[in-house]
Design goal:
6 helices; eight-stranded antiparallel beta sheet; about 230 residues
Length: about 230
């Protein structure tokens, strides 16, 4: 301001004229766009396309949360602990049988399906049954030996696909996986199923896993949508 007044005095401009000049200068400055504010506005504005995507994603999050809201996942089933793996397509269950056996199970989310004829009054068409893969690891407490079962879990039954034994103290190549379980003698199959049943691997486990995975599927979907929304909104 002092510099401006000295300049006006040197130019012998009258006070009234200098005041008008100063006011005009201030007005002009106020009308000019602020470069900094222009940059902020540009960086925070969303394009119509981006805004539309965000609106669609948020509507879907709201719909999924309201239509079939997921509940808190179970942390135990019978004598087994249940460990969820957020963001992954599996869960881990652990338990014991007696004093010398540890049981560990790893179950996937739904990874397949089959169709079956519909039953009941409305017998037309077919129903879909979802599939879960299950790896059952039964080991001795000292960890030296273990037996593994590769299973298919349907809503009402468990099908054993493979059965093989491992030795953790011995380094081997690819272990012999045994024959397809369905090719073994019926009596042998029955005995192995009973072996698993008394350890809690039965039809009740089937129902639990399918209910758990239905809920986990909703949880993972909503979280995936939230992560997508967060990324696009930045």
């Amino acid at each position: 301001m002092a510099l401006l007044l000295r300049t006006l005095q040197k130019s012998r401009i009258s006070p009234s004229h200098s005041s008008r000049t100063l006011i005009s200068w201030v007005r002009c400055q106020s009308l000019l766009p602020n470069p900094q504010s222009r940059d902020i506005t540009t960086s925070t504005a969303k394009s119509p396309f981006q805004s539309n995507i965000l609106r669609i994603i948020r509507n879907e999050i709201e719909y999924q949360s309201d239509y079939a809201p997921p509940h808190q996942p179970a942390t135990e089933f019978k004598s087994f602990s249940v460990e969820d793996c957020p963001g992954e397509q599996c869960i881990v269950m652990k338990g014991k049988f007696g004093e010398d056996e540890n049981i560990k199970m790893e179950a996937t989310m739904f990874d397949g399906f089959m169709t079956v004829p519909r039953t009941g009054l409305d017998a037309s068409g077919r129903d879909v049954r979802l599939h879960i893969s299950l790896l059952v690891d039964i080991s001795k407490v000292d960890g030296s030996e273990e037996i593994e079962f590769l299973c298919s879990v349907w809503p009402n039954r468990i099908e054993i696909q493979k059965l093989y034994k491992l030795r953790r103290t011995k380094i081997t190549g690819q272990p012999y996986m045994g024959p397809n379980f369905g090719n073994l003698k019926y009596d042998f199959q029955t005995a192995i199923r009973e072996f698993l049943r008394v350890r809690g691997i039965d039809s009740e486990l089937c129902f639990f896993l399918h209910e758990y995975m239905m809920n986990k599927d909703r949880i993972e979907l909503i979280q995936w949508l939230r992560n997508l929304n967060s990324f696009i909104a930045k």
